[in-house]
Amino acid sequence: MTTAVHDTRAAGASRAGAVRGRRSRLRDGFTRHTARRQRWGAAGVLYVMTCVFLALGAVNAQNNLLFLAFGLGLGGLVTSGLVSGASLMGLRVKRRQPGACAAGEPGVIRYEVANVSAIMPAFCVVLEDSARRRRKGEPRAELAYRVSPALVGHLGPRTLVTIETSWLPLRRGWIDIEEMTLTTTFPFGLMRKTVVFSVAARVLAWPSRVPVRPMLIDQAARGARQNLQARRGAFGGEDVFGVREYREGDAIKDIAWRSTARGQAVLVRQRAEPAGSRLWITLNLSPASGQGPGESSEWNEPELAIACAGELARQAADRGLSVGLCVTHTGTVLPPREGAGQSRAILDALGAFATEPNEPRSLPRAFRRDEAMVEIHVGGAAPAGLPGSRMRIDVRDFGAWCADPASVPAILRKGAS
Amino acid sequence: MRGAALPRLVLVLTLLGALLYALADESWGMFMLAAPLVCIGSAITGRAGARSLPKGVGLALVLGVVAWAGSLALEGRVDVSAFCRLTLVVLVIKFFDTRRSRDFAQMLVLLGFMGVAATLLSPRLVVGAVLALYVPLLAWTVVTFQFYTAHEIVVRGSVGPHVAISEPPGGGSRRSLVALSLACLALSAGVASAVFVIVPRGLGRDFFMRVGRYQGSVTGFSDRVRLGEAGIISQSSAVTMDVELRDAENRLIGGPSEIFYMRGAVLDEYHSGEWRPGPRERRTSQRHPANLELRFAGPAEEGQVVTQTVTLRAVPSEDTYLFALWRPYAVTLTEETPISIDSGTSTMEVTLPPGRFRYRVTSEMGVHTPRGDVSAPRDRVGFPSRAIEELARTVLTQAGIEAGPELRPRTRDAEAARAIENFLRSNFAYSLEMRRAPANEDPIEWFVEESNRTGHCEYFASAMTAMCRSAGIPARVVTGYVLAEWNAQTNTYVVRQSHAHAWVEAEISENVWREYDPTPPGDLREIHLRRPSLAARVGRFFESLEYLWITSIVSFDEADRSRIIGREAGPRDAISGDALRARARQARRVFGALLSGVVVFAGAYMVGRLGLILARRGRPARRARRTQDWARGDPALEALATKAGFYDELIDTMRARRQAKPEWRPVGAHAGALADADPALGSVASPLARMYYTLRFGRRPLTEREEAELSVLLERLRTLNRAGAERSATGDRAGPPTR
Question: Could you tell me which CATH number the domain at A214-237+274-412 has?
Answer without folding.
Answer: 3.40.50
